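In the current project phase, the collection of sequences with tokenised folds has grown. A sample record is quoted in full directly below:
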Amino acid sequence: MTSMTTIETSVAVIGAGIAGAWLAYRLAKRGIAVLVVSADGEDHTPCVSRQWAAAVLHRRLVEELEASIAAAFADVSGTQHPELQGTVRRYLPRESAELSGLVEFMPFEFARIPRHVVPAPRLGAGSEVIATVLARMSALGGRAVSGRVTHLHVVDDACGGLQFTRDGEIHTVRSEAVVLAAGGFSGLFADAATANTGAILGMFAGCGGRLANLEFFYRFALGDLTRRRVLYPPDLKGSRLYRDGERAAWLETAHERYPREQLDLAVFREYWTRNFGVPHVAELTAGTVELGPIRGFSMGGAAHTRGATNVRGIYAVGEARHDLAADCIVGLPWASYLASAGELCDVLAERCGSSGPCDVAARAVPPPLDPALRDAVKERLAAFQDHRFGERAAASFVTWCREARVAVQRAGHEDGEDFGLLVLAEAFAASALARRESRGFFFRGDRPDAAPGGARRITCAVHDPAAARIDVELVEETNLPAI
């Protein structure tokens, strides 16, 4: 690294998906200094999750919120954040109206989508919307930069800023608040449609941040596991599905058996949990691919109350936090992210300005995430997932994570991405061990049934640096530690 600059702002937002971009825009509109640090490419190419987003809003939520919110956010797992529906009820009307003033939407079946000459959801439309929001934020005085966040500056359980690198330069950011908006961590798993390994969540956990319900992920019923993408109805037109060489008639007709809002969960629980070990393929117009359920995004993340985490000065919004557990998510993420960003804007507007940013000293820059370590974690996690789940195998993985972290520490990279990845991976496995049942999209082959009283119980994972371990507690929702 050749030089260093220091940036001072009221709020630093990590991540430029719709949750982070919308929060930054709302803050800038109130005159609050905000900086967005995103993982976009240095040529400003949006990250993959933004290119994949279709900007779909559940139409009934926008048009008749009170009549549809309970049905839209149905959650048989009982693990949805208790504040979520109230936040959506209070803030979505205001936030969706504000967004409609920036981007014109049009109706499409059950949804509202950005207006386009092609009247159907389009992958990448979300990136266009976010670009519009970020441009408006910049016009209001906010800033957006691309870079790799290398540190959260946490001292005595309080965060005073962050550090990122770009083009060989170190940049330190002094801020009153840091917001985690960098998405989830599905990319740790072989059966995932995203590549995000949760580096920021791991960094947060390494700083003492509390994580909740990491074991829960949304599973789309049909995925192309060869190319790691969700298969939508247009992809399946004219396709043939096979189970161990024979036509998979049950899967091919599942959409006729279940309404859209029940399909993914029903197919996962009634078919895949009984057929995980059986090879499946899909003959698509684009070729033959491995077929299976595929993780779309994580339902767990940073534990929070109105966006505030247990680390003073750190907040979370979007997929980075424990919030959206639902039987069907089509049209819900953007709605919930708009609402939660609107609420967090109100929270930060009340809190920012009471104290100036603290001094932030530059730290040595750790190397980027080791691809070999990422692949090793992915392979080891796959070895005991779902039908192969066993407590001995999961405990062995936990031990491996701890031993691998010792090696990272000896190399002098205790606060780098490798260390954070191993903290996050252990926290996931320990959370899965703590939930001794199957529930919703979470499946343990050794305990395939839901336990009585398991609903409304949350796994809370915390890194204990003195003991070099992750402690996980399964607690009643009403008994969560105060933040």
User: Anything to note?
Assistant: The chain has 15 helices and 22 strands. Residues 391-410 form the longest helix (20 residues). The chain has a mean pLDDT of 90. The CA atoms of residues 13 and 203 lie 15 Å apart.
